[in-house]
Amino acid sequence: MFSFKALPVYLLLLIIQEIVLSEAASSIPASQSKPRLPRLVRRAHVNAIQKTRSLARDLRVAFGHVLPRSEEGPDNQVVYCKSGQQVLVRKKGSGGKTNEGNSPTTGDGNTGNNSTIFSNFPSSSTRSGGSTRSSTSARVSETPAPSSPPQPPSSPWRLTDSYEGRTFFQGWDFFTAGDPTHGIVDYIDEAAGRAAGILEINSQNHAIMRVETTPTVPTNRRSIRITTQAVFTGGLVIMDSVHMPVGCGTWPAFWTNGPNWPQGGEIDILEAVHEYSNNQATLHTSAGCTISSTNSGTLAISGSVIAGTNCDVAATSNQGCGIRANSPLSYGRGFNENGGGVYAMKWDTTGIAVYFFPRGAIPTDIEAEAPLPDTWGAAQARWPADSCDPFRFFREHHAIFDTTLCGDWAGAVWNVAGIPGQEESCAQRTGVASCEAYVRANGAAFREAYWEVKNVKIYRLRD
């Protein structure tokens, strides 16, 4: 293969050689004849070859500015052939797999124009067997794959029951019997509650449960108490609320309860009375369950043990063993003014624990429905298994919301002061001698006595 520019010169030299030889033959004896022109022709021949190589190099350089470049490697080569020889030349640009005739192809199977084999041999002798790697493949193998973002640890808890949105009240039973704690309320069913305007799903898809605010009532005020149809022994119960009942005379609670009280146990997650500002989480059990220590550090809690360590209702006049939170955002007006928060109760082989997260400090794993309690830090309250077996004293629980008025606790402490949030008694605040008289005569005082709940979710440990 020769350069087009070199080819006419070579032919011209051949013609000149023929003319000179014929003239010399006629004038010089054959024995003295030593034609020099063939040597000149051979030099021209060599020069033509060099120009051909330069032309190929120039073409490669020119195409190199147009065609995509790739990494140089052992397979990024072109077979350049001249006069029966094969010369391997590094190529710039991308190629592809070779087909059976060893013609380069692109990744989609089409013949590529950017990797050419120059040869005067049959294509079958250029390369034997197999196919070459494309430079694209080389780039993929040499470039590290982008690292995926780290995945959060998977939760050991699986969601089994969820109550939220327009269907929040599906899966709950409405309690309509007399109040077991002797409050002056009449619990009504769903239809009656909606008709009375004390039960609804608001425009934000939150569940609303109110107390009746009729100015005066002769006996009891209407209220709501609901119980999950779902039953669990062990689990993780998470409740997100933006508002809870507050005010003198109120006794709201979010709690769980088992059968044949107190044999099945009771776990009060969120509970207090009147104008209290700090939550009080409490266990109520049969004999044998205690808190192993009164030291908050030993229990790994942020709250404080109050009124003793015995959880047996028979021995404590139904008081059980309570732990008071240290945060004024955990209950009542502080809770409401902060937009509420999330309460979580964990019940597993380690014991029972209650956690609280005020609005703005809710763990992302809770919001992602992949709770990781071991990462939540100190609990608000904890009852370790070493002194209260959680599967001996507690079983088959339902979750419950209620708001009662007065009753065994709120009525009994109407004249008590000195509790966080209750620096003066409700008797002093209201000027009314008894809880019952105040409740019956002051319906407007209960406008803040309502639950506004975003959701309740119950989890069980994965198998």
TrEMBL record:
<dbReference type="InterPro" id="IPR000757">
    <property type="entry name" value="Beta-glucanase-like"/>
</dbReference>
<comment type="similarity">
    <text>Belongs to the glycosyl hydrolase 16 family.</text>
</comment>
<dbReference type="InterPro" id="IPR013320">
    <property type="entry name" value="ConA-like_dom_sf"/>
</dbReference>
<dbReference type="GO" id="GO:0009251">
    <property type="term" value="P:glucan catabolic process"/>
</dbReference>
<protein>
    <submittedName>
        <fullName>Endo-1,3(4)-beta-glucanase</fullName>
    </submittedName>
</protein>
<feature type="region of interest" description="Disordered">
    <location>
        <begin position="90"/>
        <end position="161"/>
    </location>
</feature>
<keyword id="KW-0732">Signal</keyword>
<feature type="compositionally biased region" description="Pro residues">
    <location>
        <begin position="146"/>
        <end position="155"/>
    </location>
</feature>
<dbReference type="Pfam" id="PF26113">
    <property type="entry name" value="GH16_XgeA"/>
</dbReference>
<feature type="compositionally biased region" description="Low complexity">
    <location>
        <begin position="123"/>
        <end position="137"/>
    </location>
</feature>
<keyword id="KW-0326">Glycosidase</keyword>
<keyword id="KW-0378">Hydrolase</keyword>
<feature type="domain" description="GH16">
    <location>
        <begin position="141"/>
        <end position="418"/>
    </location>
</feature>
<dbReference type="InterPro" id="IPR050546">
    <property type="entry name" value="Glycosyl_Hydrlase_16"/>
</dbReference>
<feature type="signal peptide">
    <location>
        <begin position="1"/>
        <end position="22"/>
    </location>
</feature>
<dbReference type="GO" id="GO:0004553">
    <property type="term" value="F:hydrolase activity, hydrolyzing O-glycosyl compounds"/>
</dbReference>
<feature type="compositionally biased region" description="Low complexity">
    <location>
        <begin position="101"/>
        <end position="116"/>
    </location>
</feature>
